[in-house]
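Folds vary. Our protein:
___
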Amino acid sequence: MKQYKDFRIIGIDHGYGNIKTANTVTPTGITKLDAPPTFTRNTLLLDGNYYLIGEGHKEYLPDKWQDNDNYLFTLMGIARELNRENITSADVQLAVGLPLTWVNRQREAFRKYMLQRETVDFRYEDTRYSVRIAGCHVFPQGYAAVVDNLREMTGLNMLADIGNGTVNIMMIHNKKPLATQSYTEKMGVNQCVKAASNAMMNKLGVTVDESVIQTMIRSGKADIDDEYAAVLRQAISEYAESIFALLRKYEYDPKLMRLYITGGGGRLIEHFGNYRADRVTIIKDICASAKGYEEFALLQLKKEGK
């Protein structure tokens, strides 16, 4: 969270697997409860309705405003950032993102969705919040995650933002994104999880909990039998190779360009990918996009003099 004049700038990265702010990560599972919860952890109260957030992940939807979930996640993100500074009331400027190939078409709809209420009162966990959402800035997803790396992006570079639902690919030439060479593919990490789960069933007749696969993806290992681990490693390695095949489809050449990988899939590539470490940079901070959105919003507000 950043401050500009009387505004709190809060970046929210609306992933399909996790909602990220500059300082927090929460899985995108959400359940509307039929009654007040016994325990208030990870619960949001809005308009008399209780929602449990953080168990599982959200299904893929091409438009992020097709339901009210991302708005609820946004309120949760605001609360979690304000709570870090013991604040319960604030004027907020939101900073969010969309894939570059979707920004021009979807920016205004997503901004309107985020600004559906100017003022909103809600409770998250045991704290009540009163927030005025004064504005919303929508930026290219992925590009924001490499804001700290832009100074080194001379020549030709490729950015791969590997999320849970999609892979976003962008060419960056001398620090500037090339809008005509930006692509979005529905080939996110969730497809790897499904492939690994199917491999376990097909080869060993075993159903494996998704959390085991996610642990393997994030750390390169899991506390399971060696035979099981080998099957998972093979499936995940095949997905990693399919990512590089996708990049080559869009003219990735490690001898001509440097590759920057961001998003939750970065760890997967780090542990299971076959790549030249001297030509590939993996952005390990999963909150990098949310932080970048805040940086861009701060610059925009200063430029506009608001």
Summary: The first strand starts at residue 2 and ends at 4. The domain at 2-140+288-304 is CATH 3.30.420.40 (Nucleotidyltransferase; domain 5). The two ends are 18 Å apart (CA to CA).
